[in-house]
Amino acid sequence: MTNPGPTEEERRLARLVRAHDRWRGHDVFNLLPSENAVSPTARRYLSSDLAGRYTLPISMEVDGETLDNSYTGTRYTDEIESLANAAAARLFRARFATTRPLSGHIAALSAIVPLLPRGSRLLAIPPESGGYDGYAPGFVPALFGYTVRPLPADGPGHRVDAAAAVETIRRERPNAVVLGQSFFLFPYPLREIAEAAHAVDALVLYDASHVLGLIAGGEFQDPLREGADLVFGSTHKSFPGPQGGLLVTDREDLFHQLDPALVWRIFDNAHWNRIAGLAQTLLELERNGREYASTVVANSQALGRALVEAGFPLVAEADGYTRSHQLHLDRPRLRASLGIGAGAFARRLERQRLLIDLVARIGTAEATRLGLVPSDMPRLAELLARGGIRKERVGREVLAWRRSFRGLRFA
Ligand SMILES: Cc1ncc(COP(=O)(O)O)c(C=O)c1O
Q1: Cα of 185 vs its chain's centroid, Å
Q2: Strand pairing partners for 328?
Q3: Fewest CB atoms less than 10 Å from the CB: which of 268, 271, 280, 394?
Q4: Where are the domains of the chain?
Q5: Under CATH, which architecture does the 43-282 domain have?
Q6: Ligand 1 centroid vs 52 CA: distance in angstroms?
Q7: What angle do CA 255, 257, 262 make, to 5 degrees?
């Protein structure tokens, strides 16, 4: 039979993927704080043969025979996993690590569900204070029968105050304090929180989804040394890996309770191409994560200053705007001065090839990977102001500048 060639739909799909790759990979400045640029070697591993393979290295009895895996052909896969877990443990200076969780959300479930029975009480930062929606009462807590009470994170910068957090922990006596935010500008007073939590036998679970790459590079804070029992999160926001999750801890008791509980509860197969790509990113950060993370934070702070000079309203001005990869436009002041909401404002910028998110967060992680440094931030702020505030057509200028950055730094 002759090969009839691709169908019209297949050709359309190929065009869409090519167009996406050109648009997002070359033609825009990505300032979304939830995303990053994956290194070329990690991308190659993502499309390797591993993409279609299984391994399940779990001992089981079948017809009187003891098996060490359900599959054959896994000799390299199992070694790749060991290498990835060892690299994660080294980079985060943790005794135990798993790179299996398929995303940040699944990493959160991997930490919470095996350790906390139904009926457990959680303290978490509510979404209106920049917390992650997944920890709001209707989501993970509803699914697994937890009650959740708010841990306060006040003011427009959503900072957690030590005294207020300690008072809340003593009053609520939760089973776990879940830290971490989607709007995440400043580190937590973690030592005080952990001391209060441990005094009431509560676990301290640190969702580092947004700041994992900074923590890897010794910036922001060092949760395991400051009292967190488990640290977990996404591997693709400030951490520049493929989409996925990981979890690290020093606590043998917790790790041995949760690690065997993941398979057949939270997931089955663990996507080994992603784990190979993640291992590559972990190794790259071992070499140059410190410089990457400190440049990200320096870029954020420089962009904060430049944005305010260019006329943007930002939150947390008195605190230097940020200690992370994020900056937050002050939404009420933005609306008052421009007469449009943050969503319409972000769409206006998108038409000029500048991507910020529709809830007014601006991120510097991917720009840092492209090679931008603090002295580039006034130019970036000026383009954002001309495109976003003054409604000028700056798309061509953005494109020319974007195309002058070739390859990725720190990769
Ligand atoms: C704090 C926090 N935790 C977890 C997640 C979920 O991460 P993922 O999309 O990797 O599942 C997010 C997503 O934005 C987040 O902001």
Answers
A1: 13
A2: 361
A3: 268
A4: 43-282, 288-403
A5: 3-Layer(aba) Sandwich (3.40)
A6: 25
A7: 85
**Cβ proximity of 362 and 327 under 8 Å:** yes
329-387 confidence digits (pLDDT tens): 999 999 999 999 999 999 999 999 999 999 999 999 999 999 999 999 999 999 999 99
Whole-angstrom Cα distance, residue 246 to residue 99? 4
CATH number of 288-403: 3.90.1150.10
Q: Is 201 exposed, middle or buried (0-12, 13-18, 19+ CB in 10 A)?
A: exposed
In angstroms, what is the span from residue 209 Cα to ligand 1's centroid?
6
Tell which one of 100, 105, 239 to mutate to probe ligand 1, the residue whose CB is within 8 A of the most ligand atoms: 105
The answer to whether 94 and 83 have CB atoms below 8 angstroms apart is no
- The token pair at 100 is 């299996």
105: Cβ below 6 Å to ligand 1?
A: yes
d(CA 247, CA 376): 35
C-alpha–C-alpha distance, residues 217 and 362, integer Å: 20
> Measured at the alpha carbon of residue 247, what is the angle toward residues 168 and 109, in degrees to the nearest 5?
65
Write the DSSP assignment of 139-172 as a string of letters.
Answer: THHHHHT-EEEEPP-BTTTTBPPHHHHHHHHHHH
Q: Output DSSP code: residue 268.
A: S
Pairing of strands 176-179, 203-207: parallel
Cβ of 104 below 6 Å from ligand 1: yes
Tens digits of residue pLDDT in 299-317: 999 999 999 999 999 999 9
Residue nearest (by alpha carbon) to ligand 1 atom 16: 182
- Token readout for 391 is 């409604």
Q: What is the Cα–Cα distance from 384 to 120, expressed in whole angstroms?
A: 46
Tell me the pTM. 0.98
